[in-house]
Amino acid sequence: MVDLHFLTAVQLSEKITNKDISCLELLDLFLTRVEKFNPKLNAIIYLDREAARDRARLADEALTKGESWGPLHGVPMTVKENFNIAGQPSTWGVPNLKNNIAKEDSLAVKRMKSIGVNFFGKTNVPLMLSDWQSFNEIYGTTNNPWDLERTPGGSSGGSAAALAAGMTGLDAGSDIGASIRNPAHYCGVFGHKPSMGILPTAGCAFPGSHLPPDISVIGPLARGAEDLRVATLAMAGTTGRSSEGKNLNLPDCNKTKLSDFKVGVLLEDGNCKQDNELTDCIQNMVNMLAKLGCNVVDNAAPVRDTARSHLVYLMLLRAATGSRLSDEELTACQQRALSADPNDLNYKTIVDRAVSLSHKDWLAWNEERELLRREWDLFFEEYDLLITPVAASAAFPHDQKGDRADRTIPVNNGREPTVDQLFWAGLPGVVYLPATAVPAGLTRSGLPGGIQIIGPYLNDLRTIRFARLIEDEIGGFVPPAGYE
Fold first, then answer.
1. Radius of gyration of the chain (CA)
2. Theoretical Cys-Cys bridge with 319: which of 214, 354, 443, 463, CB 3.0 to 4.6 Å?
3. Where in the chain is the domain with CATH 3.90.1300.10?
């Protein structure tokens, strides 16, 4: 029998509805676990205990009157630190923003509240949400529940760690470079990067900005696929001026068996060297899918030139995030870009070129993205989905030294550039496709490994449906030892 704190949000809601536990008792259970486990994990960096307990009491009173707030009535939820909640800090881990207090809820928070959740805390992030680790000067370092000496991922690392340790019922994060998918993979939970533009980012942008950058999305992290579906549908929808005369209706997926799907698989690519342990873990999952009747096709590349696709992603990604640079930093990038060898494809040189793009040049790269989107459209005429890794390896040991772009991670018997992992992040990211991260089991070293399931644009419910079938027929979230 699964411990109460490791149930999915939907299962917890059923417990509340059936009066197996009250909303206040459930919240107090999670608060007690935060007190017990968070000191060594540092996943939840802000708690709003009393306000959450007051809302839990109101949720219980509503139930006694026969009222329901929605499908997740009274379920305790945390959220990534960059999501605005009125009266709570939203700093992005930036020291000079440590006193920045949000004035109102983000739209995603409002929509999740409308289906009944009870927000009680915020989870840790890296500085500027820009790392596959989660540490900053304000809140410190978050550790992976599977191994405290390893990263939980980033930038939604606190979210995934809190879920894996059973300290929250549900969470939500953001993703531009696998920031939902990477922590889900490292911590063994589920995460969904939605199709670009379907979930509202209002109230999640960098303080002082009104829009998040190109490619950036928000989405849920959870211990089960059904939670992803419920949360995605709750947060999805048109906003503001676009809501006039425009509705969002995501295509449903009515397939009921894994054998109903034809799935392409791409486990290795020359742009990102893969760790053999992780590849073996994912291959085991693929083999089980085939045994269960899924039509699996190996080495199914969605585009003709994956190296060029990756370069398009890096150029558009760093052009987008470059808007945060100071004038002095931008000038330095422009000077380095002008003096660089035209054939230099070093990551730092690519960044310099990307942030220095003229508008005309940006439009040319965006034109290439459109051509990539058409290649993917053709791919999905033959395949329902594509399965790939999320990253090059399982969670790596903490490494906070120097510039992030100069760091390396252990892969097989050597070291590989950390930034190479952006390849798997960008494959669906640059073309705005939905991608669902799903636990695939454990590596030989006992660390979680995950896959990402990529689907056609706006077919988010298809990738989540396939994730649910994997969970039902093969398995899903497994808790780490020591958090009973």
1. 21
2. 354
3. 4-263+386-473
Element housing 122 (H / E) = strand 118-123
pLDDT tens-place string over residues 168-209? 999 999 999 999 999 999 999 999 999 999 999 999 999 988
- Other Cβ atoms less than 10 A from the Cβ of 411: the count is 21
Ramachandran angles phi, psi of 85, nearest 5°: -130, 125
Rounded CA gap, 477 and 475, in Å? 7
Kindly report the backbone phi and psi dihedral angles of residue 193, in degrees, each rounded to the nearest multiple of 5, phi listed first.
-95, 110
Q: CB of 416 within 8 A of CB of 402?
A: no
What's the mean pLDDT in 311-335?
96
Superfamily of domain 4-263+386-473: Amidase signature (AS) domain (3.90.1300.10)
* CA 372 – CA 302 distance, rounded (Å): 9
Task: Say if residue 101's pLDDT is above 70.
Answer: yes
380, 450, 368, 381: CA torsion to nearest 10: 0
Cβ contact 100:90 at 8 Å: yes
Q: Which helix (H) or strand (E) holds 79?
A: strand 76-80
pLDDT at 210: 84
Between these two residues, 242 and 463, which has the higher pLDDT value?
463
**Mean per-residue pLDDT over the chain, rounded:** 97
Secondary structure of 271-290 in HEC code, one letter for each residue = CECCCHHHHHHHHHHHHHHH
Question: Closest Cα to residue 454, out of 365, 372, 364?
Answer: 372
Residue 187 · residue 161 · CB < 8 Å: yes
Amino acid at 430: V
- How far is CA 406 from each of CA 233, 313, 396, 400, rounded to the nearest angstrom? 39, 19, 15, 11
Q: Which pLDDT band holds residue 64 (cuts at 50, 70, 90)? A: very high
73-94 tens-digit pLDDT: 999 999 999 999 999 999 999 9
How far apart are alpha carbons 68 and 87 in whole angstroms? 26
Task: Kindly report the pTM of this predicted structure.
Answer: 0.98
Report the alpha-carbon distance of residue 176 to residue 193 in Å, rounded.
9
Reduced to 3 states (helix: H, G, I; strand: E, B; else coil), residue 358 is coil
> What DSSP character marks residue 34?
H
The torsion angles phi and psi of 141, rounded to 5 degrees, stand at: -105, 135
| Other CB atoms within 10 Å distance of the CB of residue 181 | 34
Mean pLDDT of 455-483: 99
DSSP conformation class of 396: P
Using a 10 angstrom Cβ sphere, with 0-12 exposed, 13-18 middle and 19 or more buried, the burial of residue 338 is: exposed
